[in-house]
Amino acid sequence: MATLGQRVLVVAFDGWNDAGEAASAAVSRIRTSGDYTSVFSVDPELYFDYQYTRPTIGMDADGTRTLSWPEATVWRPNAPADGPELWVLSGVEPARAWQAFAAEFIDIALSHDVTGLVALGSMMSDVPHTRPISVFAGSENEQLRAEFSLERSTYEGPVGILSVLSAAAEEAGIPTAGLWASVPHYVAGHSPSPKATLALLSKLEELTGAHVDRGELPAEALAWEASIDAAAADDEEMTEYIRQLEQTRDTWDSPEASGDAIAQEFEKYLRRGGDGPTKPGRDDPRR
Fold it and tell me: What's the pLDDT band for 268 if we cut at 50, 70, 90?
């Protein structure tokens, strides 16, 4: 695991990069599995559009009503790890000044000797909830591709903040990989997808050698799948649609299938601008 090193920054953002909240839930699980301290947060006035991402108001422990503003923050583990350390960068995708936003966090990463970066995302895809969640694992770093058999995307077109941060990290000499989970589009816009979160964490462990406690995620993933089964059982159109997706996925997974099927699905998602395909029936899955 020498290529990513011993201090890996794991990055995920709410918003376009986070279908089914799978990526943000993965970094949240990392933080709750240990004791973490905030290292740095950006000034929200510089990067967020409050009409798009509004501040929220709530009660603190003393019963005082307080405002909470959109944020993006780096967190570090307080206790030394037996193996590689997982640092976390999480928050809201910025609305403006992406180059300055990325530069701030790359400066923080360099000043704290971060040795690798893994960006987590999740996308709405034409996949069934009944099969293992596919994870696209890619990198522009030649050493990482060789070490972990990662893909190199040929996509050209609009991107999100994860691509901007990854490019800035590579330019600064920090090896970077990206993991994108494929979330069934017919549920991605309506509820969290713990099964996709588990898939991201498993692939992250493969790349970094670090262990993340799963907590209640396995039980939540089983309940998630069972709830969709129950809903589909009352909807013949949905049942037939899922059956078609299963046939397609089983073809992908067959020995004769092309090895870049997941990469092709990832690039299709980016070309759609992050919008999922339209599900037949009652619901529009796009967020």
Answer: low
pTM of the predicted model, to two decimals?
0.85
Report CA 94 to chain centroid distance, whole Å. 16
Specify the residue for token string 């998602």. Answer: 269
- Distance in angstroms between the alpha carbons of the first and the last residue of the chain: 37
Per-residue CA distances from 217 to 149, 223, 267 (Å): 27, 10, 28
Query: Does CATH number 3.10.20.310 belong to domain 7-54+66-271?
Result: no
Q: Give the C-alpha separation, 150 to 145, whole Å.
A: 4
Q: How many CB atoms lie within 10 A of CB 141?
A: 23
Q: In the structure encoding, which two tokens stand for residue 274, read together?
A: 């992050």
Domain ranges of the chain: 7-54+66-271
Q: How far apart are CA 267 and CA 72, in angstroms?
A: 27
Q: Are 128 and 242 in contact (CB under 8 A)?
A: yes
* Helix (DSSP H) and strand (DSSP E) numbers for the chain: 10, 9
- Provide the strand spans (E) within 158-266: 176-184
3-state secondary structure of 41: strand
What span, in angstroms and rounded, lies between the C-alpha atoms of 138 and 136?
A: 6
pLDDT in tens, 205-253: 999 999 999 999 999 999 998 988 888 888 888 888 888 888 888 877 6
Between CA 220 and CA 52 the distance in angstroms is 30
Is residue 17 within 8 Å of 90, Cβ to Cβ?
no
